[in-house]
Amino acid sequence: MRKVAVVWLTTVAMLLTSGLSLGLGTANATPSCVFTDYWTVGADTDPGSSGDPIRDVRAGRHDCFDRLVFDVHGSADTGFDVSYQSQVLAPGSGTPVPVAGDAALRVIVRSPAQGYPGTGTTEPLATQGEHFFPESALADWGALRSVRYAGSFEGQTTFAIGVREELPFRAFIWHDQNSGIHKVIVDIAYNQSSIN
Questions:
Q1: Where on the phi/psi map is residue 96: left (φ > 0), alpha (ψ -120 to 50), or beta?
Q2: What secondary structure letter does DSSP report for 6?
Q3: Which residues does UniProt assign to the signal peptide (predicted)?
Q4: What's the CATH class of domain 41-189?
Q5: How many whole angstroms separate alpha carbon 188 and alpha carbon 104?
Q6: Is the pLDDT of residue 175 over 60?
Q7: pLDDT in tens, 38-48
Q8: CB under 8 Å to 185, separation ≥6 — which residues?
Q9: Which helix (H) or strand (E) element contains residue 8?
């Protein structure tokens, strides 16, 4: 039995190093983005909430999607509400927060922004309408076109996300056990779903 396992592993290793893939792909192959077919353009929500502050907003590019990460510093679970809107409105005032691109994605993180009263922080995360990244820097990204701060009100924070068009997305929360940070993650696919 052990000899059969060794022969099988040796054969798999030879196939992979020769450029064949057994369905896993190789480093030089075009990535398969079929997993994004199961993402949504409908609303996605997580009912949690936290008094811990949002302290950072980051963006990154991947093979099949652009990623936004909202860092919530603290141990309490947080929640989110993500949906496409005709326009994103600032919480409290209702002022429109325009974005670049042909679609506006509203991301509500159910945590206050850094600098909001009661968070134990004084420096604000951003001012209403502020861009986290220059729109010119996002112009050639696959999905993202702008990321703006709409405001923090009654313990939750709203972001206005400009998207190239209404593309599928997924949203989830990841708790980094080492740092204690809860990360609200929104991934936006580069392409429309091929299954309707």
A1: beta
A2: H
A3: 1-29
A4: mainly beta
A5: 12
A6: yes
A7: 999 999 999 99
A8: 67, 68, 69, 70, 171, 172, 173, 174
A9: helix 2-17
